[in-house]
Batch of 3 targets.
Target 1
Amino acid sequence: MINNAKYLFVLAGTAFALSAQAQLRVEISGVGSNQIPVAIGPCANEAAAPARISEIIKADLTRSGMFKIIDAGATTNLMQLDATSWKARGADAFAACSVTPLGNGTFDVQYRLLSTGAGNDLSAIKTQVPNQYGRLAAHKIADDIYEKLTGIKGIFSTRIAYVAQQGKQYRLEVADADGENIIPALVSTEPIISPAWSPDGTKVAYVSFEQRKPVVYVQNLVTRQRTVIANEKGNNSAPAWSPDGSKLAVALSKTGNTQIFIANADGSGLRRLTTGTTIDTEPQFSHDGQHVYFTSDRSGGPQIYRMSVNGGEAQRITFGSTYNISPRISADGKTLAYISRRDGNFQVFVLDLESRQEQRLSDTTSDDSPSFAPNGKYILYATQNGGRRSLAVASTDGRVKQRLSIQAGNIKEPTWGPFMK
């Protein structure tokens, strides 16, 4: 159950203490249609656990907008559960858990999810968890409930990365999807922009100005080792990983106007993809790695195009506005997210690439940097909030919205990490 813990928390030993002002606060508005009622009570012996397992589970499910939580009493024996009695109270499922400290820096977590109609097990997990991974264990249980009741993989145990700016200090930070467990990956007095997760979740590519110019780096989150990927003449920007992690697309101005290049993941084998006199930037690989989406002004204003990784003609994708930028592709390749300017507002839109149906997701007016959750059901983006930059999340059906903010400083340039294997 906790196979990915090595990668998610290895930075914790080197993290510096963050002030209370730097903690993210989550606010939720809107709910999904046809919420699933689930009865959840406190874990038996929960006070002995290093984290409030049941509270984290309930907060995760509530934040998704997909569930109506019904409070249930604590259960002392997971083998003797009467889930059918909760059907009369309106619950479709009943989740129960228990915690047992083992005295060696670990604890046992047991969890069962039952159908209230048939009374049968939908899922059951028993696992031994190191104390420092208590929150991760709770997120994993929430993921399991989400998947068993919706048929869609949960994203509560995934991570996000973003840039936090306070005064003249910039921090590239990694956090749980709920904004907790913030860990700094890089601290600098120079700007940091465009972080992008590797497909295996162990590395982040980004642009740093510490050499007094934009340079593309890849940083290993396990070893903290950094590799320069692109430090060519002019600007080096907008790194994006191929789906298999073997390559990076970047935007370089080494030839004069900014163009798209592709390099191996270690920076070798750099080759030019786009050619011409226009500005081509913000590359993103397609879900199968066979195409690159990018922003170009070749039609007179910024629009999103797609080109084969082998070159050739570029196909224009966006038409709904005279200004469309920052393409992002869902994991299944069916949906394009981007920022569109309409009536003077910069907002998050999604486009169904088959039906060509377009939908606005955000109700804010100064958005940027959209990023899909790995299950494709939510989009993380940056926006303006009370004079500061903050993060927001919207479900791809537009019904559920969250806002993540800090009391001081700005947070921006978000990217949602992958599922961990």
Target 2
Amino acid sequence: MKILVPDVPFDLDFPSRLPDGGASFGPGGTDTVVAYAMNEPVPEEHTDADVLVTWSSPPKVVADAARRLTRLRWVQTLSAGPDVALKAGFGPDVVICSGQSLHDDTVAEHALALILATVRRIDVSLAAQREHRWAKEITFAQAEPATEQEYTLDGARVTVWGFGSIALRLAPLLTALGAQVTGVASRAGERAGYPVVGADELEAQLARTDLLVSLLPALPATRHILDARLLALLPPAARFVNVGRGATVDEAALEDALRSGRLGGAALDVMETEPLPEDSPLWDVPNLILTPHVAGGRPRRAAAFLADQLTRWRAGETPRNLAR
């Protein structure tokens, strides 16, 4: 079995690495592991691969692989969301798995950083710093009884939309700071002690939300799901943080909500078009913090994850994180 892995700047080593760059894996040593340049089309001599591991390859490169790798049986993406692989055009018999769990720690950390930055108005302080101005208005607003609650997570009603493994890592961090966390997912119930509401209760939940955190994947059903109508349901002082996928947000509606003051603030690590174009209006929207899709950074413990996935595959078991 030939397995293609990307030439990434982190550990994807396999057992029994060979000097020529190949490797033998598993009982009998019948698997060959070949590294490929993740930003370039797969070389012709490797289009006979059975397994393709992807990480951060441009969509056009993944689509090219879907067209040319006709023997492919399995695509394992190291991204938390498999949206690029799902849209690439792989045949219906090709198994696609995501890298869910590989980014839980770092995405949760970055989400918390963005949450605290927008709640504590770090963007206002940084802007004032560049102007050599002492932003005393932040102090006054925190001391004012009518607005003091807007500057703290203690007692804040936080809704996490997309309550999967990342949310389960993030929620206790928010709880430790005094937030009241509620999840939104396809199925209502309770997860790790946190109440989770279904889609039928989303609108009512948004109306009682101080901070909305999106961890939604990019799927046809989630495209622009956070639109003007749902944004209008949030209280005017509410804040929004997106570390899921940019395509889930109607950015024009978000811009309008921020400029008009119908939304208190927002922080985005993901945008619909990335890199964000220089002429995008998002750069200059007030009360908006932007980071360049860095929440995940890199998959953690990817080598052990791949080894386990390959072991399951060779044993005829279903790999984890099956996307289709």
Target 3
Amino acid sequence: MWRDLAPVGRSARSGGYFRQPFTAAEGELRAWFAEQAAARGLALEADGNGTLLATWGSGDDAVLVGSHLDSVLDGGAYDGPLGVVSAFAAIDRLRGRGVVPTRPVVVAAFAEEEGSRFGVACLGSRLATGATTPDAARELRDREGVPLLDAMAAAGVEPRLGPAPWLTRVGCFVELHVEQGRDLVHRDAAVGLASEIWPHGRWRFDFTGEANHAGATRMQDRRDPMLSYAATALAAAATAGASGPRATFGRLDVAPNGTNAVPSRVTAWLDARAGSDDALEELVEEIARAGSERASGDGTALAVTPESVSGAVGFDVSLTARLARVLRPWGGPGEVPVVPSLAGHDAGVLAAAGVPTAMLFVRNPTGVSHSPAEHADLADCLAGVDALAAVLEELVA
């Protein structure tokens, strides 16, 4: 399965992946998912939000398992697909042992988890749970101005946005994911569990000024929003500090975007994360305050708009403790590690919606993620499959 996925959406130049939702590359992945379901005789279902589901068994109180197939721009191979591939492989393990499930197992591939095309992370799961409304989703546009509904239709996905009926049949959700950090490396463990997800979000900073000639306009006569942005980015780094909260400006849009022109507008997107909801709010407020003060001195203006904000989420304590007992053989020298996640996941959206949820992590030797250098050793990936199979057997056998 991993060999089949390796070339899809991969850049020959960087080695990274461009698997944005409702594009040709993601369409290949969706076709691959359907082929894997058919090869195992699993019932295939697609909801109107773009999420794919493959069911082993029948009935309610299902164990949902899986992740997502889309990537960030120039992303790594493991973030998302590892969880989907491992879910199919874990079912193969259970069938090979003659396990007959007493409750259904549903493999999910959620749509637009990364928010790389339409700007809202975990869009498929947020629509399924009602965290994002259909009306709000209909207003979403990608960077070229293509509406979400048009992109879905062009990809052959019939849009029926809104809460998903299949979610009422789910008893719990277990998501396996490559670790995005090095906790498991430091603990010498191939597999771990997540305790919580830090609150995080995306805010759009619109700096506006006055376009002018780069040569003819004196420095003191300019109203340059690029200077306001640059000072705000430095303020964000200083406010977050060396450890603890995270503040990142990773995307810019500049108008008129000319080499010999002072910009009229700079739009920058802030990704911010902190250990509590209050700490996150304080972090963003301080960055916005610093930006507004600088803009006032530059003769520019700043407007800040939240685009996607997720509060702190703790995973189901009893389910996590139950799985920790099952996963002791994969925990390294001691108990299986239970660590926080500073990255957002569909698991966090479902947990916030009241679905009992747990997360498994597979060790990442460098900790690098959202990059072509993202990696997990094959031995650890196979350990993840065995661990996930043990978890599913505990829950359905």
